[in-house]
Amino acid sequence: MRYLLDRIDEQILSALRTNARASHAELSSKVNLSRNAVRVRIERLEREGFIKGYTIVTGDGGDDSPITTALMFVYRQDRMRGGEIIQALRTIPEVVACDVMTGDFDLVVRVESPRADRIRQIWQLISELPGVRDTLTAFALSSVVRRDEVRRGQNPAASNEPL
């Protein structure tokens, strides 16, 4: 039987993706476990093939790795409840936006990752959450308008920036 990742495993992997040289002590403070528990989890992640090696990627200092973007449309079993689903989505670092919607589906979740297989893992995690009835996932082919900062409470038409 294949090992299933839990929330702490995901946090460890996310931290290692950001900094593969992070110490067990640094990781333990991020996931609220002892250094030994983090070491045991990392060894298991290596043994199970979730971590296949550590590498250095050199470049000009810019972050030019392509990002895969997916929109996940989530259908909840009960539209009036389901705060647990939103709380779970907040713990996934690759979830960059989640909006509650009207119409046929309940939530639209924007997921960004440099690896498409990670998006598949996130889809599986979301689809297995209690209260999720169904999901539909669409991958973005390209991004033609992208604003990195969202100004809350500000009317874009009233700003001096072009739309």
Taking the sheet with the most strands, its summary is: 4 strands, antiparallel
What fraction strand? 15-25%
| Strand adjacency order, main sheet | 2-3-1-4
Given as residue ranges, the uncertain stretches (5+ residues, pLDDT < 50) are: 149-163
Radius of gyration: 18 Å
Structural class: alpha+beta
The number of strands is 4
The succession of helices and strands, N to C, reads: HHHEHEEHE
Distance between the termini: 52 Å
> Which overall shape is indicated by the principal axes computed on the Cα atoms?
globular
Overall pLDDT metric: 81
How much helix, percentage-wise, in residues? 25-40%
| Tally of helical runs | 5
Task: Give an account of the 3D structure.
- This protein is an alpha+beta fold and 163 residues long.
- 33% of the residues lie in helices and 18% in strands.
- The protein has five helices and four strands, in the order αααβαββαβ.
- A four-stranded antiparallel β-sheet has the order 2-3-1-4, covered by helices on one side.
- α2 packs across α3 (35-47).
- The chain is globular.
Summarize the structure.
With 163 residues, this protein is α+β, with helices and mostly antiparallel strands. Helix content is 33%, strand content 18%.
